[in-house]
Amino acid sequence: MYRTHTCGELTISNKGEKVTLSGWVQRSREFGGMTFIDLRDRYGITQLVFNMETDAALCGEARGLGREFVVQVTGTVAERSNKNPKLPTGDIEIIVDTVTVLNTSDIPPFTIEENTDGGDELRMKYRYLDLRRQVVRSNMVLRHRMAQETRRYLDGQGFIEVETPVLIKSTPEGARDFIVPSRLHNGEFYALPQSPQTFKQLLMVAGFDRYFQIVKCFRDEDLRADRQPEFTQIDCEMSFVHQDDVLDTFEGLARHLFQAVRGIGFEGKFPRIPYDEAMSRYGTDKPDIRFGMYITDITKAARGKDFPPFEEAPYVGAICASGCAGWSRKQIDELTEFVRRPQIGAKGLVWARVEEDGTVKSPADKYYSADDLVNLALMTGADAGDLMLMMAGPREKTLNALGELRLEIGRRLGLRDDSVYAPLWVTDFPLLEWDDETGRYYAKHHPFTAPKPEDMKYMESEPWRVHANAYDLVINGTEIGGGSIRIHDSETQSLMFRTLGLTEEEAQQQFGFLLNAFRYGAPPHGGIAFGFDRWTAIMGGSDTIRDFIAFPKNNQARDVMIDTPSTVKKQQLDELGIEIKKSGKGG
Ligand code: ASP
CATH homologous superfamily of domain 291-416? Predict the structure, then answer.
C-alpha cells in the first residue's frame, strides 16, 4: 500500500495513529537537531519531522532528499508545538519511522510553491511542474466543477450530450479556419470546427430537441491578448423555442453554476437590454453594469454655439464622473491621453466641472454661456462636485470611446469590484454589419441567425435595418456567451446567403447539406454557446483564460512545452502532396 492517507487530510483527531503517506518533497529545513519536510500531493501539505538525536541515520537520509523527490514515509501523527493555522493539516506533523525514495528529481527550474520565482515562459515550458502548484491546480479543480455542474444542470433539463466531428468543412464564425490536408484525397482539406454550429442544427432536424456538448473549437485568429487558438465551448441547441425560452433556460444554467460553484445567488431576473440601448448608454455591446455613469447624447445642445470641436461633429456625447470635480489637470490630461491611444483613436475630450455653488467651469466657456453649461450639466445628471467629460465625432466611434473612458474611470474609482458579479442579457442585435473594406455585409452573429419576422420586409431593400433574435450573456463587461434563434427554412437561408454576397452555386457548394436538410421538416430552433474557459476564469476572479487551461498556448499561439507548431518530415508532406513555398513562413 502506497498510502493510508493523502497529504491533505490528517488533523488532530488522528493524533497517535500510524500512517503511510506518499508525495513530493516541497522543501526541507533544518532547525537545531531537527529536519522538517513539507510533503505535498494534490490534496495538501503535511509536515514530516526527523530528529537527529533519536535517529541520526534516518535524519541523515531525510537531509539527502532533494526538492520534488517522490517519497513514501511511515510514521506517527503527533500534535505540533508550532501550529500553522493557514494549513488544514497545520495542527499536526508526522514523526517519521521509515522513508522510501520512490523516485528522485532533477532540481526543478523554478520553485514549486505559492509564490514561485519562475517567469511565465519558463512555467509554460514546464507546465506539468506549474500544475503541481496549488494555485494552478485549484483553477483546474474549479474548471472540473464547472463542467460537472453544467452537465448536471443540463441533464436535469433533458439535454443530451452528443459529440460532433472535428474533421469537417468550414463553419463561418467570423474567423479563419484551421485546415487539415487529406492524405487519401490529395489536394483536398478538412477544416477544424470554429464551432459545431451546423451539426447542432442538423441534430435539431434529426429531432433531438435538446442538445449540448462541452466541446473544443478552433479559430485561426490574429494574435490578441488572452485568446487561444483552441478553446472550449458549452454548446447548446433547442427545438420549438422562442428567444425567451432560450434565455430562461440558460439564465437557469448561469444561476446554477454561480450557486453551485461560488455559492452566489442573484435576486430577480437578469436585466435584458436591447443592443441599441446598450450601445447608446454604455458605448459597447458588452456593458459592465456594476456601475452607472451612463452616456448622454448631447449633440443637439452642444451644437449651434460655434465651438469648433463640436460644431461639425455628427454626434456629441458625455459622461458624468460623480465626485470627480476635484481631479487635477494632470489627471484629466491622463484621460485625454487614454482616449487618444490608437486602440481608441479619439481626438480628445472636453471637460466641465460643477462647482459647489452650482456654477459650471469649462475651458469651452468662451462658446457656452453659464446657462448653456448648467443645461449640459442637467442633461448629464451632473451635480455639485461632479466632472463632465464630453467627446465628439462619428457616432459609433465616439460611443465606443466614451464606453472605454467610462470603464477607465470606473476602474480608477474602484467601481469594478471583482467580488461583485453583474450578469445581463444583451438582445436584439442587428442581423448584419457592413464592412467598408470588402464592400459587403457580414452576418453580425453568423449566417444561420434568423431575421426578426417583423423586419423581414427590409431584407432586400434596406438590410441594415434588420434586427435578429440574437443575444449575448455578458458578465462584468465580458461577453461569455451568445446565440440566436435560427433560420429553419431553406428559402430564408438562401436569401440570407444571397444578402451576404454568396451566389446560389457557392451556397450550394458550402452549405448544400444544410439547405437540403431544411427541406425535410426542420423544426423552429435556437441555441447558444458559452466560452467555457472565459466563464471559468471569471468564476475564478481572473481575466486570464490561460490560467484555467491545463496545457495552453502562449500569446504567440505556440505550445512551448511540446514545441509546436513545428516542421514535419518531407515524406509526410509528399504523402499529402504538399510543397512548402520558401516565403511561406508566417503567411
Ligand atoms: N455557434 C455560435 C458561436 O460559436 C453560438 C451559437 O449561435 O449557438 O458563437
Answer: GAD-like domain (3.30.1360.30)
Q: Which residues of 313-344 are buried (b: 16+ CB within 10 A; e: fewer)?
A: bebbbbbbbbebbebeeeebeebbebbeeeeb
C-alpha cell, 11 = 488533523
Rounded to the nearest integer, the mean pLDDT of the chain is: 95
Q: Which residue's CA is the closest to the ligand 1 atom numbered 3?
A: 529
Contact 63, 28 (CB under 8 A): yes
Which among 235, 250, 328, 226 has a CA at the least distance from the CA of 552?
226
Instruction: Give residue 528 CA to ligand 1 midpoint distance, Å.
Output: 6
Distance between Cα 531 and ligand 1 center (Å) = 10
Give tens-digit pLDDT for 110-160.
999 988 898 999 999 999 999 999 999 999 999 999 999 999 999 999 999
Contacts of residue 144, defined as CB under 8 A and 6 or more positions apart, other chains included, come to: none
> How far is ligand 1, taken at its centre, from the CA of residue 577, in Å?
34
Least confident of 66-70, 102-106, 220-224: 220-224
Mode of pairing for the β-strands spanning 92-103 and 440-443: unpaired
Query: The pTM is what?
Result: 0.94
Question: Which of 192, 227, 231, 233 is the best mutation target for the ligand 1 pocket, counting ligand atoms within 8 Å of the beta carbon and taking the most?
Answer: 233
Query: Which residue, among 525, 522, 524, 544, has the nearest Cα to 534 in the 3D structure?
Result: 544
Query: CATH classification of 12-103 is 1.10.760.10, yes or no?
Result: no
Per-domain residue ranges for the chain? Answer: 12-103, 138-272+424-548, 291-416
Question: For domain 138-272+424-548, is the CATH number 3.30.930.10?
Answer: yes
